[in-house]
Specification:
This protein is an alpha+beta fold. It has 3 domains: about 130 residues, no CATH class; about 130 residues, Jelly Rolls, CATH 2.60.120; about 110 residues. The protein has 7 helices and 20 strands. Strands 15-14-16-20-19-18-17 form a 7-stranded mixed β-sheet, sandwiched between helices.
Length: about 400
């Protein structure tokens, strides 16, 4: 009677092999998540879909409101008497081929509403309307495929802005999108790789959604990493645990893969930000750098103000509608004894002012000055005697007498 041979012990899995398995699982999870995303969001055919239609600012017409054509955008400077702006666009495309309309506009304040208008050859006498969502000053694409009026050949589109605003709104154009699988992938990659200038909120990261992406990269990678982690844990329990593999090393590789992709995007954006900063400020004096900055117009005005002020100390009050202008004006005026309200546009009552105090007004509504009587008033308060020392467009320096 012969003895049966003992089974050979399972070979262990090397750390390099574990990393390779984890990386493969991560890539498989990425492909699976992309397929699910496309299946849920692609309206048109995955292949042989029509190309997206694009219109630039030169194709736009302002039917209501005041606007002027700039280099690459239509700058809307003011609404009409009814606080409305209508930007029209002539079109000719089949509604069924293009379920999504995207307007490229920026600088829209929170109090301004937006809507899409259209008419078709089926109901040419009727104009249909769909509300638009505004996030971070931009108009989000709107899916009109489920609208019963989105039929036939679309003969015209229009963007309606309703509300008052003081800063210009830039409208660069519009797109009609077939929402095919290829286009969705291209849109996501363009949004992820789009240059996001530093906004001042943080220099250590990118703000999800700020560049206009409907699928923020951090959220997408978090889902991919979570799915890959679950898949690797199942594979480890089924195959790798008995061969001495540590589950932590594979999960660490999956986490590092997601982190490296995010950091690579940040580094790419940082390199472009460095190039933009050098182009804007390189080789300039400190005064020229301030003039080239976002508050350059304010800095130029404050420079004129400082030339009119006596040497410090002197009491200087700052009035501006935007908190940003109040902060920056005070910063440029130091070391004078500067007063401003960081949380409100309100000025102190007239009784708080003393002789030889100074008032800097920059884009602040509600301030009136009577040149003939040399009387200053604001927000219905009692007037004060004041001398106008400097007068610019939307800005002034006054000395209380």
């Amino acid at each position: 009677m012969s003895e049966s041979a003992a089974p050979a012990p399972p070979t262990s899995v090397s750390p390099a092999r574990q990393c390779a398995v984890a990386a493969t699982v991560f890539l498989a999870s990425l492909v699976a998540c992309a397929a699910v995303y496309l299946a849920l969001n692609a309206h048109g055919p995955w292949f042989a879909a029509p190309s997206a239609l694009r219109w630039t600012a030169r194709n736009l017409t302002a039917n209501r409101g005041t606007a002027q054509l700039a280099t690459d955008s239509l700058m809307v400077t003011a609404p009409d008497a009814a606080h409305s702006v209508v930007i029209a666009l002539g079109t000719s495309f089949l509604a069924r081929d293009y379920p999504v309309i995207a307007w490229d506009a920026s600088g829209i304040p929170p109090n301004v509403g937006a809507a899409l208008l259209w008419y078709s050859d089926i109901s040419s006498s009727r104009v249909f309307r769909r509300a638009l969502t505004v996030e971070a000053g931009r108009i989000m694409p709107v899916d009109v495929a489920d609208d019963r009026a989105w039929l036939g050949r679309i003969r015209g589109l229009a963007l309606v802005l309703q509300g008052s605003f003081s800063q210009p709104i830039a409208v660069r154009g519009a797109m009609a999108k077939p929402m095919s699988a290829l286009e969705l992938l291209q849109d996501a990659s363009r949004a992820w790789l789009k240059f996001e200038p530093w906004s001042g909120s943080s220099i250590n990261g990118l703000v999800p959604g700020l560049a206009g992406e409907s699928l923020p990269l951090p959220a997408a990678l978090a889902v991919v990493a979570a799915l890959a982690g679950l898949a690797y844990a199942g594979l480890w329990r089924w195959k790798l645990r008995s061969r001495g593999a540590a589950i932590g090393s594979g999960l660490a590789v999956i986490f590092m893969a997601a982190w490296v992709l995010l950091d690579a995007r940040w580094q790419w954006n940082l390199l472009r930000q460095a190039d933009a900063t050098v182009a804007l400020y390189g080789g300039k004096s400190w005064q020229e750098r301030h003039l080239a900055a976002e508050d350059g117009a304010l800095f130029a005005f404050i420079s004129e103000v400082r030339a009119k002020l006596p040497p410090p100390p002197a009491r200087v009050f700052v009035a501006a509608d935007l908190a940003y202008f109040r902060h920056r004006a005070a910063y440029h005026l130091y070391p004078y004894d500067v007063y401003y309200d960081p949380g409100s546009t309100a000025l102190p009552p007239p009784s708080a002012f003393r002789k030889d105090d100074y008032l800097v007004v920059y884009r602040r509504q509600g301030v009136q000055y009577d040149t003939a009587q040399q009387r200053l008033s604001w927000d219905g308060e009692a007037p004060l005697n004041a001398e106008l020392l400097l007068n610019a467009s939307g800005a002034a320096l006054l000395r209380i007498r």
